[in-house]
Amino acid sequence: MTHNALLTRTDKTLPARQLAQSLVQVAVARGAGEQKLLRGTGIFSEDLLTAKPLSCNQLQRLCGNATQHYKGFDLAFQFGHHLVSAFVNDALPYFTHARNFGECLRALPSFQTRLYPFVSAFRYDEGDDILLVLQDAMGSGKQFRFMAEAYCAALVALARHCTGKRLALHFSFPFARPRQIQEYEEGLGFRLSFEQPFFTIKVARAELATPCLQPNRMFKQFALRRFLEQREYRVTLLDAVRYHLRRNSNATLPAIAGELDLSPASLKRKLADHDTTFSLLHDDIRRQQAIYYLQVQKLNNEQSALKMAFTDITNFRRAVKRWTGQTPSQLREV
């Protein structure tokens, strides 16, 4: 990877006609004023009708305005559903002609930086299920809940568009059950869990084999080739750092900066621009791994420590307590 391949919050590459226009249309339909939505974003009404490139910063400001002025509680779900049709002439042809839903799911990372760069998903295989842990790919901070909910709704809509069915996707959220539960049920279905350690989507492996309605290998490959020719960035900066930390949990900031063709000072500055630090990203990954192995898979300390490259069990226990606030035994009991 070179630094030119890494999408950051300030890079202007997102198509206004798809992302910004989709959000504005949904919000205006519920009584939000267009000018209030665009205020402070650097986006103008005429931009919504063009392919003018916008930055993630601008879209994040627009999301902030939309959540403030939208009259209702289902903005994220409406936006997510709307996104699928917004890319009908861009990325959607690939998914339309895929062989099955599993192929659609595997392809999503290739399209992420143009379709929806705010959320990425790390995949764990669990025998009969796969688990997608949603990650903040663009430093959305407090807005990540909105971004993640929109991602979940978009996945529901994509599955229905491609397969003609509402697949059995199970969604888990790291917050209490909301009072407006009907919006979640209408947007995502009834397989919902709350007060969980992180945002996840669980998909039964049998659902991955659900065939798409219009499979066509030639059309699919043509759509992918056309899309990749237009794509400017392969991955977000935050996901690139996460990738190297997962490969080597002991990697240092200078080492990863070198892998990304950046100076340590530049990488540190760019992470600060995304409201995070190297240490925070590292701890978040290790917290995620500890919860997955101990709470989800119910592995014992020795098995979990081995998977997380610890050679000393005492150090493992201390690290888990620091990352999660709980001991390994407490995590397994949840």
From TrEMBL:
Gene3D superfamilies per the UniProt record, alphabetical: Homeodomain-like
SUPFAM superfamilies: Homeodomain-like
Domain HTH araC/xylS-type, residue spans: 235-334
Keywords: DNA-binding, Transcription, Transcription regulation
GO MF annotation, one: DNA-binding transcription factor activity
Keyword Cell cycle: no
PROSITE patterns: HTH_ARAC_FAMILY_2 (PS01124)
Name of the protein in question: AraC family transcriptional regulator
Phylogenetic classification of the source organism: Bacteria, Pseudomonadati, Pseudomonadota, Gammaproteobacteria, Alteromonadales
